[in-house]
Amino acid sequence: MLLSKVPEITVGFWVAKALSTALGESTSDYLVHRLGPYAAVFIGALTLLIGLAWQFSTRRYVAWVYWFAVIMVAISGTLAADAVHVGLGIPYVVSTVFYAFVLAAVFVVWQRTEGTLSIHSITSVRRELFYWAAVLATFALGTAAGDMTAATLGWGYLSSGLFFGVVLLVPAILYARTAISPVFLFWFAYVFTRPLGASFADWFGKDHHLGGLALGDGPVSAVLAVAIMAVVARLAYQSGTPRLQPAIAGEGDVPRRGRVS
């Protein structure tokens, strides 16, 4: 029996996930405007490597380590998606489709290799590599999708955020009323929390002429950082006892009325 490297899927998990996506968006934009795109991408890549190295060095789930890695992935995923658009001039529609194919490829290889996409089967280095590759792809995809609806489709940040909020009701309803795989519903929700958080972060931070409230990316990042630290502190308190998970492919999937994924 090996120790799981990921948290329980609770309301606190989704709150922390949404806050991390918003923090990744606002912090990425703040770094780009303050340091320039090249320096921002370098810092994002460096902190990503630090965060993942720290996460992989642990033998079990540690709340502060895990969520630090998630935040670093959020910042780097945002920078990656923005770099494709700003640096290479690739339209958001194209980058959204591209990252969707990347995520699908990760899932296909992961499923064929390990036999399950359940995050409760993350009990080996190889499975953890697949997991973080999927997480990074979801952040890049979500960033591109959020920018596509806000800018390319002209919906604006608030309308985009409300749209993705409605989309997130779909997996919640399906989980309660159908027999659709909870693993599929988990990843569906995981992808769409990214543009949800990013859209609202942009709405709070961006200037009025861009459809925002003009609070500034820096102040928004600071508030979000305090909020996520409070949530993670609570999650760390709740996760005092390490959890054992079977290291057999497929056994990480949970019963229908158990955990979400």
Main-sheet strand order equals 1-2
C-alpha Rg, in Å? 18 Å
Number of beta-strand segments: 2
Largest sheet: 2 strands, antiparallel
% residues in beta strands = under 5%
Average pLDDT over all residues: 86
Verbal overview:
This protein is 72% helix and 2% strand. It has 261 residues and is mainly alpha-helical. It is built from nine helices and two strands, in the order βαααααααααβ. A two-stranded antiparallel sheet has the order 1-2. The protein has helices at 11-35, 37-57, 63-86, 92-114, 125-152, 157-167, 169-177, 182-205, 217-238; strands at 2-3, 244-245. α1 (11-35) packs antiparallel against α2 and α8 (182-205) runs antiparallel to α9.
Gist?
The chain is built from 9 helices and 2 strands.
What is the element layout, followed by pairings?
Elements: E1 2-3, H1 11-35, H2 37-57, H3 63-86, H4 92-114, H5 125-152, H6 157-167, H7 169-177, H8 182-205, H9 217-238, E2 244-245
For the structure shown, list the relevant keywords:
single chain; 261 residues; mainly alpha
